[in-house]
Amino acid sequence: MNVLDTQITHIIFDLDGLLLDSETIYTQANTEVMKSYGKKYTMELKAKTTGMKMDDAIQTMLEHENLIGTVNLDEYKAKYLDLLGKYLPESRLLPGAMQLVKHFAKYKIPMAICSGSNLFEFDAKMKNQKELFDLIPLRVLTGDDPHVKKGKPEPDGFLETMRRFSVKPKSAAHILVFEDSINGVYAALAAGMHVVMVPDLRYSNPSETCKDKITLILNSLVEFKPEMFGLPPYD
């Protein structure tokens, strides 16, 4: 059974909040930095900025909280990176992540990670997750990749990831993206790809209009059935 008219041949994963529980760490770090300025980091603010390049996200937060002119972007960023360096190595795998990645690897289905992280963040997360990352050698980190001009919700990162597959997909329609954020979903759809969304409903509840464009919405990666997309089923 295949719910799509096209055969999926390639997979792109988001990272934070999808494979790793690192979104809770980003929330913690932003909460601590905002508190130091007498402000509150809300889920509304998180929803607006998830997937953006770091500088763009910080700028958006400073504008939203009327901190422009009071707090320098580089000052906020320095505090934020210091906390991320401490906390990100504690990131844990989310349910179903390793099982799914190993399954695709077993059947040699081309995979990639497209994340809003920069290299500093990625290396911190990788410290205790080497097994996972060794299975997905293609990673596009839009946070500081010079070939990606705009982060999510723009499609640049996903299109660049598609370009870098050693075995090229016939078109974007043959790629299945796994995402947890609204910005990530919009980016994948704008790139012409199919999307499975695993949202954290605390900050990423898709609208009815958005739901109509998402191929599948799951509570967890554990629920994913590869055969629904014409892919080999679990043993």
TrEMBL record:
Q: Which InterPro entries match?
A: HAD-like_sf, HAD-SF_hydro_IA, HAD_2, HAD_sf, PGP-like_dom2
Q: Report the Pfam families cross-referenced here.
A: HAD_2 (PF13419)
Molecular function via GO:
phosphatase activity
PANTHER family from the entry?
2-DEOXYGLUCOSE-6-PHOSPHATE PHOSPHATASE 2, PSEUDOURIDINE-5'-PHOSPHATASE
Protein name (Swiss-Prot/TrEMBL): HAD hydrolase, family IA, variant 3
